[in-house]
Amino acid sequence: MVTKREEMVTNGDLDSCGSDFLGLLVKARYEDDESKRISVDNVVDECKTFYLAGHETCDILLTWAMTMIINETLRLYPPAFEMMRKVDKEVQLGKFRLAKATNNVQSVHIPFGMGARICAGYNFAPILTKIALSMILQRYAFTLSPAYVHSPIYAFTIRPQFGVQVIFQAL
Ligand code: HEM
């Protein structure tokens, strides 16, 4: 990109190297007034700063935002709501004695389960969700339809009883 802009300058087309940030830097690199001219290192440093300050920050913000949205959604509406453990034989678990054949339902926030039988998609599922969400957001803006009725029901998973009606608008 820099080379392309520099070619414009060396071809005598200083004014068409762009009025964006990179264009201003390249112009400053070829500034007639020596006191205002900047070095190649300056250009590289400015580009690195701009990349880090402008890209990395928003990138991380978006990553946290998506993670929080996904975690909060999993907390409020965990798809696998009920996680049951059946005791196969009597066992002492720390200070608890668990009798044979009792069902133990846990109601804390562990959306992917835990222990030896933790969800095999534990790492994959949030990535899949982020990719799907990114692909939708790249192409559409959307709002909830006035027809939507909020009614989560438990039917093996927690699901919207009447579906979720969404109005998509192509971007
Ligand atoms: C948001 C999405 C998902 C949620 C909330 C979820 C949740 C769960 C839960 C609660 C369990 C039971 C864990 C336990 O008993 O401790 C489980 C098991 C399992 N999940 Fe998922 N899961 C999701 C996505 C996936 C995906 C994408 C895959 C496959 C690519 C997957 C594969 C499995 C498998 C194979 C088991 C059985 C593991 C075993 O018994 O050893 N899950 N999941």
TrEMBL record:
Binding annotation for heme: C119
InterPro entries referenced in this protein's UniProt entry, alphabetically: Cyt_P450, Cyt_P450_CS, Cyt_P450_E_grp-I, Cyt_P450_sf, Cytochrome_P450_Monooxygen
Annotated membrane topology: Single-pass membrane protein
One matching Pfam family: p450
Protein's cellular compartments: Membrane
A Gene Ontology molecular function term of the record: oxidoreductase activity, acting on paired donors, with incorporation or reduction of molecular oxygen
Keywords, comma-separated and alphabetical: Heme, Iron, Membrane, Metal-binding, Monooxygenase, Oxidoreductase, Transmembrane, Transmembrane helix
One Gene Ontology cellular component annotation held by this UniProt entry: membrane
PANTHER family: CYTOCHROME P450 CYP749A22-LIKE (PTHR24282:SF20), CYTOCHROME P450 FAMILY MEMBER (PTHR24282)
Assigned protein family: Belongs to the cytochrome P450 family.
Descriptive protein name: Cytochrome P450
Organism of this sequence: Linum tenue
Source species taxonomy: Eukaryota, Viridiplantae, Streptophyta, Embryophyta, Tracheophyta
